[in-house]
Amino acid sequence: MPLDIYSTRAQLAAIDLLPREYSFLFDTFARDVGAVEDTKAIYDYRKGSRRMAPTVHPGTGGVLMSRDGYETREIGFCCIAPERMIEAENLQGRMFGERVLGAMTPQEREKKLLARDLVDMRKAIQRRREWMVRQVLLTGKLEIFTYTNEGRSKKASMVADYGFTNFFTPDTSWDQAGAKIDDDMHEIFDLVYEGLGYVDKLVMAPDVAACLRDNSNYIRLFDGRNINMGELNTRYRGSGLRFLGWNSDGVEMYSLSGTFVDDDGQVQPILPSGTLLAGADGILKVPHGPVTQVEETGPNAQHKTYIKKEVPLRYGSIDGNSIKNRLTSDPTVVPFNVDAWAVATVL
Questions:
Q1: Which domains does the chain have, with CATH numbers?
Q2: Cβ 29 vs Cβ 279: under 8 Å
């Protein structure tokens, strides 16, 4: 019996073979830990410390040292579920890019639309994951506003405050005379170090990168491996990412441009103006919760649960004479160490 290409099972197999869209913040600072069976993500929270061992008089034995305390916390998974509708008019007319001569049949168009919609919805889900990672990195919080049949909720339905405090503002803005950019970077690194983290990447908004290039005092302290005859040679890496070089401590520096459209329909920059992120790879983890859905109607309908990061569903409406394709993903974002990075507003 041939496999039904529209079934959840067949589409899951196809999704597993498709590469995920690259997004810099997610792929750099987050670690995808896959799908889990738990209905909530459990994580340990603590603030690091560097206490010294006590000194004792010989022969008196040791002195009891307390362990660093921690709290076990939990956070729910948010549900991301974009849909695309296929109506009769989508199948009867010519598709975008379809040849004028030798046109496809409606059945062939439907298969093409399904494949295209799955790709588009996976990209949209990844953009939401990137937004979630961005929110945790910049604010130390995860706030989710959900949609219901009445529209978007006015209050956050899920809020996780991780107690992030590593915010830095220099005494002198980096676009002002007398700015001590290299000294400020050292302070930012020390802030992360005190939180038991380390820095191997600096990611900044484009206007911050412009200040670095225009500051002659900083350029004299800059690691000159990518300077040629007094010119700073940046390298574009795609996806809005530009490699600037290494700072005086040998840390990689990047400029990140690009925008996204938020839930209010407003265009926002990926990194706000004047912002700099200091951290290392994989400081956040992204687990995915189980997806439960009903795939049939009538008396035999039942819930099915999938331990997958993305689960498709295809269902039809007789009254509306249409078919909808849905793709559901239930991720959340949790820091490994809430003090392992820093956010600086330098302009």
A1: 8-28+43-48+73-160+289-330 (no CATH), 166-283+338-345 (3.30.1930.10)
A2: yes
Q: What is the number of residues in the chain?
A: 347
End-to-end CA distance of the chain: 64
**Pairing between strand 147-148 and 167-168?**
unpaired
Q: Do 135 and 50 form a contact (C-beta atoms < 8 A)?
A: no
Return d(Cα 136, Cα 156) in angstroms, integer.
15
Q: How many separate helices (H) and strands (E) can be counted in the chain?
A: 7, 25
- Contacts of residue 39, Cβ cutoff 8 Å, sequence gap at least 6: 76, 77, 289, 290
88 token code pair: 């009769």
β-bridge mates for residue 236, sequence order? 242
- Bridge partners of 227, per DSSP, are 232
User: Judging by DSSP bridges, how do beta strands 267-269 and 259-261 pair with one another?
Assistant: antiparallel
pLDDT digits (tens, 9 = 90+) for 299-335: 888 889 999 999 999 888 777 778 889 999 999 999 9
- In angstroms, the Cα distances linking 26 to 33, 81, 283, 332 are 12, 19, 10, 12
pTM across the whole model: 0.84
Shortest CA distance to 211 belongs to which of 258, 259, 252, 244?
Answer: 244
- Counting as low any pLDDT under 50, the low residues of the chain are 1, 229-231
